[in-house]
Design goal:
By secondary structure, the protein is mostly helical. The protein is 56% helix and 7% strand. It is built from 10 helices and 4 strands. The strands form 2 sheets. It has a two-stranded parallel ribbon. A two-stranded parallel sheet has the order 3-4. The longest helix is centred in the middle third of the chain and has 26 residues.
Length: 195
């Protein structure tokens, strides 16, 4: 869905890519996370080793909340700077792709929320296809997130991603048309946070 939206000429910010950058050597997040964990969590290049971090979270489920308290504000700042740049480019619509939209309170800073959902079995299968994943990691992450039903109930629009790609794309286009009619106000909320 994210790729298809970009193909329509709409800028998309992927929060996972923001986190990836924040986990790179030189970012203050790296030192803060090492301090939080009480040990080095970096790889040989000085970047956060996500496997090490995942192992620690699997051992201590409360650690995830503390990590989020460090990472989420930095992600918010990065999103704000990206939004500023898009505003200066005169972008009329932008998309924030944020896996923990409601969990981290990002929905309050958006004009509308579009939820992409799939059957739980398919979600797990897709997760397990990623590198460095385990069943225990899936269980921890899944238990911390809302269910697909809860995400759907809280969202303005729903895109089902466990159907044929053509149907998903058609549904996405229909939603884009509807969203373009919404009067934007969210950018002002971001400005109030950082001005």
């Amino acid at each position: 869905v994210e790729k298809f939206i970009q193909e329509q000429g709409i800028p998309v910010l992927d929060a996972d890519k923001v986190v990836y950058k924040l986990y790179q050597k030189g970012s203050p997040i790296v030192q803060n996370l090492s301090h939080l964990c009480g040990q080095s969590i970096t790889d040989i290049h000085g970047n956060v080793d996500r496997t090490k971090l995942s192992e620690l979270v699997c051992k201590d489920s409360h650690l995830l909340k503390n990590i989020e308290e460090i990472v989420h504000p930095a992600v918010r700042r990065s999103i704000y700077h990206w939004l500023q740049a898009e505003y200066e480019k005169k972008s009329t619509i932008v998309v924030l792709s944020i896996p923990l939209m409601f969990d981290a309170g990002f929905h309050e800073l958006c004009d509308t929320v579009i939820c992409c959902i799939a059957d739980d079995k398919i979600r797990k299968q897709r997760f397990m296809e990623r590198p460095n994943t385990t069943n225990s990691k899936w269980e921890i992450i899944n238990s911390k997130q809302l269910s697909s039903k809860q995400y759907a109930e809280k969202s303005d629009f729903i895109i089902y991603t466990d159907t044929e790609l053509e149907l998903t794309n058609k549904e996405t286009l229909s939603i884009i048309e509807k969203v373009q009619c919404i009067k934007p106000a969210a950018y002002l909320k971001w400005l109030k946070l950082y001005l």
